[in-house]
Amino acid sequence: MTDAAAPRRLRVLAAMSGGVDSAVAAARAAEAGHDVTGVHLALSENPKSFRTGARGCCTIEDSHDARRAADVIGIPFYVWDLAERFREDVVEDFFAEYEAGRTPNPCLRCNEKIKFAALLDKALALGFDAVCTGHYATVVLREDGSRELHRASDMAKDQSYVLGVLDDRQLAHAMFPLGDTRTTKAEIREEAAHRGLFVAKKPDSHDICFIADGDTQGFLAKRLGTAEGDIVDESGTVVGTHEGAYGFTIGQRKGLRIGRPAPDGKPRYVLDISPVDNTVTVGPAASLDVTALTAIRPRWCGRPPTAGPATYTAQLRAHGGETEVTAELVDGTELRVAFTEPVRGVAPGQAIVLYDGTRVVGSATIATTDRRSAAGAGQPG
Q1: Among 57, 58, 132, 209, the one annotated catalytic
Q2: pLDDT tens digits, 29-73
Q3: 22 annotated as ligand-binding
Q4: Which of 10, 24, 75, 341 is positioned for an S-S bond with 129, CB 3.0–4.6 A?
Q5: Residue 318 burial by Cβ neighbours in a 10 Å radius (0-12, 13-18, 19+)
Q6: 233 among annotated binding-site residues
Q7: For the whole prediction, is pTM greater than 0.70?
Q8: 175 annotated binding-site participant
Q9: Strand 147-151 to 137-141 pairing
Q10: Annotated binding residue at 357?
Q11: What is the reported pLDDT for 263?
Q12: Is 369 helix (H, G, I), strand (E, B) or coil?
């Protein structure tokens, strides 16, 4: 929802993580004349267990930074406890996906289940019109009253991928004041400094907020335990061992601890993770080439796609590039996607987000992939 789409004065709930983007977004919403209230989400059942410093987005320091920013902006501020919902919908999902041999995206899940489900539902119940965040994306209001989610004007900062789970109802109550900003991050920081916001120089967060030390494998091991298994090559020959298949991701090269070199002397990569027999399969880079995939649980940003196969571009990672695909929705529940050119680093559990130009069509969760072997033969992944 942009100011052009909503010229009237709105009651806006600004989600303030404690970072510079959300603070500037809240300030812009207030400056545009909206009635803004800031809220910081307490997402840890034991916030003292979260890391100190400015690496995450949910620490005690972050809540203090958000409060100071709200004071400078001159808006009311509250801390809402959504820790139980966060644990159930994000953290437990994270464990379950890795245990099943899939690679989840907890930030995307948080946007879907927390910021634009739990938070939005509570905001609407309290009489707010919109939830404002510091994401770089744009909501466009069409003449027929429907809304579309588009990439940010600055592709370098675009975050539409992690918002690809939003539906039409959620888009109707979403506000992204930074989406139309064609400025550098340095200029956003300059704006924050000009506004007197203490967070102007605060580093960006890049880690998973609920993993205190950034050690994902160690975090998983504490919950899932260790279970020694085999690392095998494509022929089934054991080339090494591991302490838990959940500690690997498709396309991983480092940390494999393989004793013997590949016959051709080239690096090997993780090709498959099998939680059933606790086996990790490795092979050459060429065997990572994915030619097609099937995705489930599709969610459409606004109007759904037309029936039958259609050409789109797709993004497979939050900071990945676009690739051309042909996609078709089958039986309303399964998205079948074929790539014009093979892509690598695609893993079950990840989200695929489809685009029509700059418009986000929707997203789905990758269930299976079709790979071609190094010899050129296709094989399921």
Answers
A1: 209
A2: 999 999 999 999 988 766 554 444 434 456 778 889 999 999 999
A3: yes
A4: 10
A5: middle
A6: no
A7: yes
A8: no
A9: antiparallel
A10: no
A11: 78
A12: strand
Mean pLDDT of 76-82: 94
What pLDDT is attached to residue 135?
93
- 263 exposed, middle or buried (CB, 10 Å; 0-12, 13-18, 19+)? exposed
> Is 134 marked within a binding site?
yes
Please report which confidence band the pLDDT of residue 257 belongs to, taking 50, 70 and 90 as the band edges. Answer: confident
Helix (H/G/I), strand (E/B), else coil: 361: strand
Coil vs helix vs strand at 245: helix
Chain segment 213-238, per-residue pLDDT in tens: 778 888 888 888 888 999 999 999 99
Statement: residue 106 has pLDDT above 80: yes
CA distance 357 to 333: 24
| 363 annotated as belonging to a binding site for a ligand | no
User: Which one of the listed residues 57, 110, 132, 301 is annotated catalytic?
Assistant: 110
pLDDT band at 5 (very low <50, low <70, confident <90, very high): very low
Backbone angle region of 376, left / alpha / beta, with phi > 0 → left and psi within -120 to 50 → alpha? left
Residues in the chain: 381
Type of residue found at 149: L
Asked about 132 being catalytic, the answer comes back as no
Tell me the C-alpha distance between 179 and 170, whole Å. Answer: 16
What is the residue whose two structure tokens read 């379950």? Answer: 96
* Strand partners of residue 337: 293, 327
| Counts for the chain of helices (H) and strands (E), in that order | 9, 18
CA 354 to each of CA 163, 202, 315: distance values in angstroms, whole numbers, following the listed order? 12, 33, 7
Q: How many CB atoms lie within 10 A of CB 254?
A: 7
Report which DSSP code applies to 87: I
Q: Find where tokens 């109802």 sit.
A: 169
At 294, list the tokens.
């099937």
SS3 at position 249: coil
Known catalytic membership, residue 110: yes
Residue type, 239: V
